[in-house]
Amino acid sequence: MSQKQTILGRIGQLARANINALIDRAEDPQKMLDQLIRDYSNSIVEAEEAVAVTIGNVRLAEQDYQADVRDAQDWGAKALAASNKAEELRGAGDPQGAAKFDDLAKVALTKQISAEREMADAKPLIDAQNATVEQLKTGLETMRTKLTELKTKRDQLVARAKSAAAQAQVQGALSSLNVLDPTSEIARFEDEVRREEARVAGHAEIQAGSLASQFAELEDRTTLTEVEARLAALKSGTRPAIER
Question: In which element (H, E) is residue 73 found?
């Protein structure tokens, strides 16, 4: 297989590649795209070199063809000149001179025929090579378009990955703040404060009850003392005065 056929096959394979399908099948799309970009870039360089060589060969063949065209024209002109000279000599009564120039005309015609045959052989080959050059140029342009598409896909994918990572980071931060109930911590703290307030109030109530009982006990003791005093007065025959 020639280098030209190899390059054409590679160009066709890469140009037909379905980038979206490749991305869908890839385990790591970014790495896959980076590798494809490298492959495309390398293949484009190789294809450009192959196209340059092919174009150079075609241009050389075209130059050779044009040289054959000029040779055929020149030998035809020489054959015509020799034939005319032969007829001139023959008309002047010089058959030997005429024969000599007829022989020259024959040589020139032989050269013309050889040049024309080379032209006929070269023409289809040049046409085929020109067709190949056009295919290579079209393939190269397709590969360049694909390479641009690949780079755009890669850049979009990287941007999406960064955006997704940023969103995940924000979501994680929001989750740590309890997005579903942002007042839950405040409510919990408020409940703790209320419980503490109730506890303090309970203690205060207990203290208040204890103080009241002490005063009641003191009052009971005062009443008992007065009763004892009055009883003693009765026994002694004296009657205590009643405060008004």
Answer: helix 29-91
